[in-house]
Amino acid sequence: MLLAERCESERLRQIIKELQRHRFGRRAETLPEDQMLLGLEDVEQVAAYGETALDISAPEGREVRVRTRRGNRGALPTHLPRIEVVVDIEGKTCPCCQGELHRIGEDRSERLDLVPAQFRILVTRRPKYACRACEDGVMQAPAPARLIEGGLPTEATVAQVLVSKYADHLPLYRQAQIYARQGIELDRSTLADWVGQAAFHLRPLHERLLGKLRRRPKLFADETTMPVLDPGRGRTKTGQLWAYAADDQPWGGADPPGVAYVYAPDRKADRPIAHLAGFKGILQVDGYAGYGKLAERGDVQLAFCWSHMRRNFYELAAPGPAPIAGEALKHIAEFYAIEKDIRGRSAEERCLVRQQKSRPLAEAFEQWLRAKLALISQKGKLADAIRYALSRWEGLTRFIDDGHIELDNNAVERSIRPITLNRKNALFAGSDGGAEHWAIIASLVETCKLSDVDPLAYLTDALTRIVNGHPNSDIDQLLPWAYYRHELKAVA
């Protein structure tokens, strides 16, 4: 009886520690990169402030500091236009002998200048012609196609609104405020109308992107909550934004990376089954049980995420001393050390190294987990963490015999992060339809970023070509990675 009470007391303490960390501690296991950069910005600002004060108070060392600054600043891009300003002497007569000075060279320096974003108005004129002899009719060139018929914006303007909202996380009302400072009064509802019409035209591209990803032999999958306004109840409801990503770069694959988001009003297991209809291969996921139904059909094998498994032990070790959880983290770290060494190698090389090095570690770790599970209370959080790992052991160790599989699901979690940033700023989607638009445009924007394509240039070009009748049979040429290859050919 006393032993049972102690076990229950320990379990409750663990729950309290977990709740305290969830409420007051950091959610991430490591300091987020963006947050770390914010701290470094302040440090660098203080250093620059001190250097400026030193330049003024101790001018004798200024030249040395200037040379150091020049050596660290890098080179300016060659594609930017150069506006030359000549700073010349007033008179070209020698002050000594009054002879004419001749030019022997020059000093040249370059600085980065900025012209603020500026609106302009494109005026389209279509002359009309008639024949004086027959007066049979009036000839005039047809009006160019527009994305917003009868509206104000060009395709580039709409693309800027999309990129600001879905890449730079600026809600439409903030964009309206920014435009108002330049004297352009655009109501938020007007901007929303532009986004909706753009989403309609871009929907076939989203469907094609998802279809192309479904043909890959290996995908990552994850999901995140999407608050959606529910006017009938006067509050928000919780939808789900599912993410399906492909990234073959860790093993040198030729296929370009990409991600497609799909909105669903719930988290039922039927959702990924519908989204991935026709997919055959490896699906790397977290521990959500709903993916199991997808694997039951036989065409899909699940590879589970070591990062999620690790998190269970980390949450036990983070609040204070936890010998077993801490030792589990050391075991897991050995696998990540091997992966770091083989990143970028071919799938065959990765598989060979894993069979030689990771397999013995996996066998030892499994035996260690089973031995520890037999020694501890079965009702505690530690037992739950161990059972989580052992119940998914086949999927967790599938990476050993397949060099295409990653150790974790971080590739798709990185694609989820921009969605969470946008969600913090926008708070919620206005409707299920708005959440679907979010999925459509964010898929194209994030795939651009994965392929090193400028999303503004891409969306401007894609929208322009769509409204000008780009054939649906050639839709693959409008996908972000095709645009990237097209740009490379143009440069060459």
From TrEMBL:
InterPro entries in UniProt: IS66_C (IPR039552), Transposase-related (IPR052344), Transposase_IS66_central (IPR004291), Transposase_TnpC_homeodom (IPR024463), Znf_dom_IS66 (IPR024474)
Superkingdom per UniProt: Bacteria
Organism: Bradyrhizobium septentrionale
Residue ranges of domain Transposase IS66 zinc-finger binding in the record: 92-135
Boundaries of every Transposase IS66 C-terminal domain copy: 443-481
Protein name as annotated: IS66 family transposase
Family matches, as PANTHER family: BLL1576 PROTEIN
Domain Transposase IS66 central residue range list: 151-436
Pfam families per UniProt: DDE_Tnp_IS66, DDE_Tnp_IS66_C, LZ_Tnp_IS66, zf-IS66
Annotated Transposase TnpC homeodomain domain residues: 11-85
